[in-house]
Amino acid sequence: MSPPVDNPPLDAENAAFIRCGVMVSVASRDASHVASLSRALGCRVAPDRRRVTVVLSASQCETLLRDLRETGTVAAVFTQPSTHRTIQLKGTDAALGPLAPGTTALVDANIDALVKDVAPLGYSEIFVRTVLAYEPEDLVEVTFTPTSAFAQTPGPQAGRRL
Amino acid sequence: MTLTVDAIRECLEGNIPSLVATCAPDGTPNVSYVSQVHYVDGAHVALTYQFFNKTRENVLANPRATLFLVHPTTFARYRLAATYLRTETEGPLFESMKAKLAGIASHTGMSGVFRLLGSDIYRVIGIETVPGPVVPALPPRRSLLASLRAASQRLNACTDLASLLDEALDSLARVFGVDHAMVLMFDATAQRLYTVASRGYESSGVGSEIPLGQGVIGVAARELTPIRISHATTEYGYGRAIRAAAAAAGMADRLETEIPFPGLPESRSQLAVPIVACGRLVGALYVESTEDRRFGYDDEDALVALAAQLGTGIHILQATEGHDEAPAGAAGRLPVEGAPVVVRHYAENDSVFLGEDYLIKGVAGAIFWKLARDYVNEQRVEFTNRELRLDPAIRLPDISDNLEARLVLLQRRLDEREAALRIEKTGRGRFRLCVRRPVKLVEVAPA
Prior knowledge:
The structure holds two protein chains of two kinds.
Chain A lengths: L11 H8 L3 E7 L5 E6 L1 E4 L6 E6 L4 H10 L2 E7 L4 E7 L3 E3 L5 H16 L6 H7 L7 E6 L3 E4 L11
Antiparallel strand pairs in A: 1-2, 1-5, 3-4, 4-8, 5-6, 6-9, 7-8
Chain B lengths: L17 E6 L5 E6 L2 E5 L2 E6 L4 H8 L2 E7 L6 E12 L3 H16 L10 E12 L14 H13 L4 H14 L5 E8 L4 E8 L9 E3 L3 H9 L3 E3 L8 H9 L4 H6 L12 E9 L2 E10 L7 H25 L19 E6 L4 E4 L2 E4 L1 H17 L3 E3 H6 L12 H14 L4 E7 L2 E6 L3 E6 L3
Parallel strand pairs in B: 14-20
Antiparallel strand pairs in B: 1-2, 1-5, 3-4, 4-7, 5-6, 6-7, 8-9, 8-13, 9-10, 11-12, 12-13, 14-15, 15-16, 17-19, 18-19
Helix pairs in contact in B: 2-5, 3-4, 3-8, 4-8, 9-11
């Protein structure tokens, strides 16, 4: 069942949560239902919260980009490492698009926030900056309409629809 | 080059969370964090099943999964294509994942949230290195193969059980840099492990006991599998194990806690390896550290190999101890003087007290009582392993009696307590009771 028109699955509070200081992971699948997976570098949420854009390094996820192009199915997980707070968004209309102005600044802000967030957990700055290292010309954007959102903070409540 | 799981198993230490992507029958993908991806062998991994979640629902219908792993020091990224095979809910793999999960849970503030329901086993179809920068790997602090070779040669040179045990612990310290270690022997009749040698503790704890199945050591021994924990956890702590053991009251149980277990109070990394010889549990080798993540997969491999050699050595040296050699020349006896020492024996559990001090119980207690009786009644001080085996009062089990290990235990307890009665080896399968004060025997019959 599609969500009511005036009530996108991504509420204002969760939209604010995924905008900065989160580890982003993105999955899709191919025609034979084999999943593909990669880490993303950051995300952008449209003002009406109906469109979400994740940023990927193309050279690191060729299979994922192929699957997103061919099937449009997408699952994206957003986690704040310090709190384990995690949500997952799913959609069926993922599309690759050109890099919007300001995307590298958005990615850099997310990485800087993550460096601060994980430091108390004992993870070094070099860890975050290596795992999320990118070349600006390698970045691609994938935009989709979230059709469902799930709480995924570890525990028995994980998987609850938001 | 095709990678095997062995080549990237450091990624499976659980330091950096792993990801798994699966696909539902309707074609909807799903991404989930995995608390632990566990190394099974070069072609298999196991994932923790803690809750019935979307990942599990998906793989039961469509077994293909994709994993994303990060190396803990180089931060290299790997993608694994895998197929779900089956779930195990008991046995060695399950227990070793359960213990490791307890450490991860405690480290990440998830104690009480993470509970293992099963080990989901996957076959790894392919491993892909994700392009991108990495941090150069640091050289290892030592070559574990070179360490193992050195330790192996040291063990090979030992000719009696006591020196074999000491050499094993000494090698761990000098060659492997492991400063806190102990060897426990398995008592099959009592289903317990007792400490026979230790190194790096305030008190040796020789004679302290762990019930089979309790804590890291007891689980490793029961499941015949190494148990390794990389972070402090209360779940496998020995305070808890020992309290549980003492819960059932009665003198025997109180005595079990009489000799404190010599573990580190601030232990952060623990590794227990079963010692097996000829397919039978002989005991356990246990090492620990105040550092987090002190022991990795390679340390575990090295200690398993060392424990195998230790097991063979224990087996051979215990077997050859039974062969009598010509008696050593009668030593000049020390003068027996001073106030008598009262040796009290409780027949109920063969516990022995010297004066008011608890010495030992069980088989080692029965052995000591025989020696003390023979000394008082017949003025005998020279004994053989063979006669102990034949003495019905000692009630040695028929197979794998560990007599020599019990004598080492008894000798060390007496030495540590600076007792007026000591035992010393006089040859293979022979030993002498050294008495420095008059002895008075008190037998306490069962109530």
